[in-house]
Design goal:
By secondary structure, the chain is α+β, with helices and mostly antiparallel strands. It folds into two domains: about 15-230, no CATH class; about 370-538, no CATH class. The protein has nine helices and 20 strands. It has a seven-stranded antiparallel sheet with strand order 2-1-5-4-3-6-7, sandwiched between helices. It has a five-stranded antiparallel sheet with strand order 14-15-20-17-18, covered by helices on one side.
């Protein structure tokens, strides 16, 4: 259902426009604060692996909090799906994680709620609010729900668009079905409740906003916000010289064949700039693969949007208009536009990073004085789980580990940070050891892992975890075979490495994507890649 409101267009006051832009953004930020403070899991509470957004009556994004960029593309598609499939009523809360219905991968659960305000149209929502969070356990064949899978069914429970709340009433059957298919139901129920709380604070803040300004005055500014974002993106594109810019990079492997002889998975892009319009064509990228490295189209769109926002001189508004001058072309059934029942666990976390790397490499031809070398190019996904004998319950833990940022024309890259499509934090040692049977043996900067040049790339991280209980460990990482590239004569950053040392003292190298069973005293070490260097070293 698409609703259009008709209002006389007043003269738009630029000062009021900016005020309303910030107010809508503050609604999304407030939602994020509530979600973080009320969540159960360290992944949401400590790492802040979530995003909250506000949408208009037509499901067009108005504002998104300063959260994870990976959700930039997926949340609008999730809202579009809900609007298309349901007749919203007050008190409804919709839930979905299906990658093929607007989601990204199964751990990312999105909750959406309509906001009804206008007295003249009591049955028509004026806004929608949405909260997406990465749940550390969604079932599947491996704890942490980031397995080395070959089809989506192995990755966990797949939730089509459903009503979690119907007219304010919790649908207990839906919740029960979900909780019966995960290893950590108490944590999942708590995190879902935190997402619902975020939606409710968003609803409250929007009501306050409408009460302050009135619907008749506010609605024209909603349209103006979209147009304003569009104008900013057109200026960004106009600053890029017209032309065609092509680049290719690759994933180490498909996630199934991870041997040294495994074939790389190429991602190719063709960027065409024509005045104030830009076309990004990924149609020559590899077909979707057997393993879990497939990305759905929402992920690819999110990566493109992230790169273009990075080109802005300031922080452009996060609204639907931003992408109006941009055309993203993908080929259905490719690794950047996978179709059911492709495995997609790693596409969201890893392939998104390579899409960014590839697009930045292409744009470096047009903007050599603005584009940095490749960052570490991987989220270094770590998950483990099993039964905790001390707490007498199952546990599932997930985190990403930072790396080096690529150096740029204006200086060296930062060390030990989350780069590009992950804007999350690390899991503090204190929180990790409190919640899980794990001990952090080492956590430090991986010195001299960044590439050299006029400016050096940032260094990666070394993080060692000791298992205190029997558990299953999965590492899903990239840049273990193909190093992050340097630019303008700078050298590549060091590739990452993963190791296992048993309690008996035996040490062996793990593959970039690997699953092993740990016994108490076993230690896994993740050494993340450094960023590429920029410029020739003098």
């Amino acid at each position: 259902m698409v609703i259009c409101y008709a209002y006389a267009m007043p003269e738009i006051d630029p000062i009021r426009l900016e005020i309303l832009l910030q107010l809508f953004a503050s609604v999304a930020d407030d939602m994020g604060v509530v979600l973080r403070r009320t969540a159960y899991s360290p992944n949401i509470k400590e790492r802040r692996d979530f995003a909250c957004s506000v949408f208009d009556a037509r499901g067009r994004v108005l504002a998104m909090g300063e959260h994870l960029p990976i959700y930039l593309g997926s949340m609008p598609m999730s809202v579009e799906t809900v609007i298309r499939e349901f007749e919203p009523t007050p008190g409804d809360v919709y839930i979905l994680n299906d990658p093929f219905s607007g989601g990204t991968h199964l751990p990312d659960i999105t909750l959406i709620s309509p906001v009804f305000i206008e007295p003249q149209n009591p049955n028509v929502p004026l806004f929608y609010v949405a909260a997406c969070a990465h749940h550390a356990d969604m079932g599947g064949i491996a704890p942490g729900s980031m397995p080395l899978s070959e089809e989506v069914f192995q990755e966990g429970i797949r939730i089509p668009p459903l009503k979690l709340y119907d007219r304010g009433r919790l649908q207990t059957a839906v919740l029960s079905l979900l909780l019966h298919n995960v290893r950590t139901p108490v944590e999942r129920e708590g995190d879902l409740a935190a997402q619902v709380a975020a939606l409710r604070i968003g609803d409250r803040r929007l009501r306050e906003l409408v009460k302050r300004y009135g619907v008749g005055e506010l609605q024209p500014y909603v349209e103006a916000l979209h147009e304003y974002a569009e104008s900013i993106m057109r200026r960004i594109i106009q600053a890029i010289p017209d032309g065609v810019y092509e680049a290719e990079d690759c994933l180490d492997d498909d996630g199934v064949d991870t041997t040294a002889r495994a074939r790389p998975v190429p991602i190719a892009v063709r960027v065409t700039v024509d005045g104030d319009r830009l076309t990004v064509d990924f149609s020559k990228s590899a077909p979707q693969v057997r393993g879990c490295m497939n990305a759905v189209r929402a992920v690819t769109v999110a990566a493109v949007q992230y790169v273009l926002r990075c080109l802005a001189d300031d922080d452009p508004p996060m609204s639907e208009g931003l992408m109006r001058p941009v055309t993203v072309i993908t080929r259905r059934g490719s690794v950047v536009d996978a179709v059911f029942p492709a495995a997609v666990a790693g596409g969201n976390a890893e392939t998104s990073q390579r899409i960014v790397d590839t697009m930045l490499k292409a744009l470096s031809q047009a903007l050599p004085d603005r584009i940095p070398a490749a960052g570490c190019g991987t989220m270094n996904n770590v998950s483990l789980g099993g039964f905790d004998p001390d707490r007498m319950k199952d546990f599932a833990y997930y985190e990403t580990i930072g790396g080096g940022m690529g150096a740029g024309p204006n200086g060296p890259g930062d060390s030990g940070i989350q780069t590009h499509m992950t804007n999350s934090l690390n899991t503090p040692i204190e929180a990790l050891e409190r919640y899980f049977p794990v001990r952090v043996r080492e956590y430090r900067i991986r010195r001299r892992s960044g590439g050299t040049g006029k400016y050096s790339g940032g260094d990666g991280i070394i993080r060692s975890l000791e298992a205190l209980a029997s558990c299953r460990f999965t590492i899903l990482s990239e840049r273990r075979k193909y190093a992050p590239y340097g630019l303008a004569g700078g050298t590549a950053g060091q590739k990452g490495e993963n190791f296992l040392q048993t309690a008996q003292g035996q040490k062996r190298k793990l593959r970039g994507k690997d699953t092993v069973f740990l016994e108490p005293g076993d230690v896994v070490t993740v050494e993340t890649p450094g960023g590429g260097g920029w410029g020739k070293k003098r």
